[in-house]
Design goal:
The complex is a heterodimer of chains A (222) and B (219).
Chain A: E1 4-8, H1 13-24, E2 30-33, H2 41-46, E3 55-58, E4 61-64, H3 66-76, H4 87-112, H5 115-137, H6 150-154, H7 157-160, H8 162-169, H9 180-191, H10 193-196, H11 202-221
Helix pairs in contact in A: 1-3, 4-5, 8-11
Chain B: E1 5-9, H1 14-25, E2 31-34, H2 42-47, E3 56-59, E4 62-65, H3 67-77, H4 89-115, H5 121-139, H6 152-158, H7 164-171, H8 175-178, H9 180-190, H10 193-196, H11 202-216
Parallel strand pairs in B: 1-2
Antiparallel strand pairs in B: 1-3, 3-4
Classes of the chains: A alpha+beta (222), B alpha+beta (219).
GO molecular function, one term (chain A): glutathione transferase activity
Domain GST C-terminal (chain A): 86-209
EC number (chain A): 2.5.1.18
Chain lengths: 222, 219
């Protein structure tokens, strides 16, 4: 019998990407919540190199790094495909998931930074959103075209996490006037049944993100 | 209709070298175009508007960017010869994990060594040494990271061979002395014609970086 386990931590968007992929493919799995302040022996054994979640364990063998996990899921369970067939379209999808990964420090700086650092990060983040809007999404319904794909999952955090971050920081990034297509996409993405049923509760996320933000401000000003 | 393949590149780029090796492994004929990064061609700006960086592979007029994405693309399109990735999904995941590790822990870290003042190098050097220790552990008694044959991880990492001399000069350590297995692995890879002809001379790369550092006012 297929045995699939996912080691994760709420409310990591990286974990949710894996959850979305597994659920979109109707793959049954056991979820194990990790306490990142006290990592389990299992996590350290399964991901000794990075010691991070998410880790997917399939038939006893661990796979780490979110994008690697997602490609694995796509290959082992090819039904309900999340990557296009054609190598060129696949390459485009992979380009954008890499872009998201490479540029995530800017968005982290937006959430983490204070004062001038925060202002700079906000400017940079808006430039990145413009690139994503114009070159990545364009006028498509999803990044992959007519249906949800790995690139949509990669940018999924824009749909459920960014608003909470914006509220905690007190700065709006993704405004409908400036990014109409991306804003529309966040709604379309959330309406996909699997996504809708698997999003962290914003009422639980807000106090969590607000408390993180307060910690960042405190450490920057101490 | 014959395939038209163009590679936009800049000779010292370790990323460009990866693509050259992949194309050579598959025996693909292509047109090589050297870019001047201080005066980028219209073609580059059009083909990679997001990053405006090399390398860019243009296949029948359509651009593919990001070196490892390009290598996977080449492997999928020209799938009948010299596979670069394994077929088993778990082994593929393993290969992708380690190429991701190479990108984050070798390439990103080493960039700091030649683009910062020598005095700031100590912590970067320590990070690089830790990384190479992990990689040596991964290699153990195998001839290649892929096992018995040259594969995706070997291809991703070997282009760093072009920077061995520079890393030693700027970081003040010996890769041969500290990492004899990595050194032996690199020499093994360099015996492959497809690799050797894709990697420029280490000292030429060092001279180029010395010039870059002067221009940046680092030395």
């Amino acid at each position: 019998m297929e045995e699939v386990k996912l080691l994760g931590a709420w409310p990591s968007p990286y974990c949710y990407r894996v959850i979305w992929a597994l659920r979109l493919k109707c793959v049954k799995y056991e979820y194990v919540e990790e306490d990142l302040s006290n990592k389990s022996d299992l996590l350290l054994q399964y991901n000794p190199v990075h010691k991070k979640i998410p880790v997917l364990v399939h038939r006893g063998k661990p796979i780490a790094e979110t994008n690697v996990i997602l490609e694995y899921i796509e290959e082992v369970w090819p039904h309900n495909p999340l990557l296009p067939d054609h190598p060129y379209d696949k390459a485009l999808a992979r380009f954008w998931t890499k872009f998201e990964e490479d540029k995530s420090p800017t968005f982290f700086a937006f959430f983490h930074g204070v004062g001038e650092e925060q202002e700079e990060a906000t400017k940079e983040a808006k430039k990145l959103l413009k690139i994503i809007e114009e070159h990545g999404l364009g006028e498509k319904k999803f990044f992959g075209g007519n249906k949800i794909g790995l690139t949509d999952l990669a940018f999924g955090w824009l749909s459920g996490w960014l608003e909470v971050m914006e509220e905690a920081v007190g700065v709006k990034l993704l405004e409908a006037n400036s990014f109409p297509h991306l804003k529309a996409w966040t709604k379309t993405f959330k309406e996909v049944p699997v996504i809708k049923e698997n999003l962290p509760d914003p009422d639980e996320m807000l106090p969590y993100f607000k408390s993180l933000r307060e910690k960042f401000i405190a450490s920057a000003t101490s | 209709m014959a395939d038209e393949v163009i590679l936009l590149d800049f000779w010292p780029s370790m990323f460009g070298m990866r693509v050259k090796i992949a194309l050579a492994e598959k025996g693909i004929e292509y047109e090589y175009k050297e870019e001047n990064l201080w005066n980028k061609s219209t073609q580059l700006l059009q083909m990679n508007p997001v990053h405006q960086l090399i390398p860019v592979l243009i296949h029948n007029g359509k651009p593919v960017c990001e070196s490892l994405v390009m290598v996977e693309y080449i492997d999928e399109v020209w799938k009948d010869k010299s596979p670069l990735l394994p077929t088993d999904p778990h082994q593929r995941a393993h290969a992708r994990f380690w190429t991701d590790f190479v990108d984050k822990k070798v390439f990103d870290v080493s960039k700091r060594i030649w683009s910062t003042k020598i005095e700031e190098n100590e912590s970067t050097k320590k990070e690089l040494i830790e990384t190479f220790k992990i990689l040596e552990g991964k290699l153990r008694d195998k001839p290649y990271f892929g096992g018995e044959t040259f594969g995706f991880v070997d291809l991703a990492l070997i282009t760093f061979y072009s920077r061995f001399y520079s890393a030693e000069m700027f970081g003040n350590f010996s890769i041969e002395a500290e990492f004899p297995e990595i050194n032996a692995w690199a020499k093994r890879c360099m015996q492959k014609d497809t690799v050797a002809k894709s990697i420029p001379d280490q000292k030429k790369v060092y001279e180029f970086l010395v010039q870059m550092r002067k221009q940046l006012g680092l030395d």
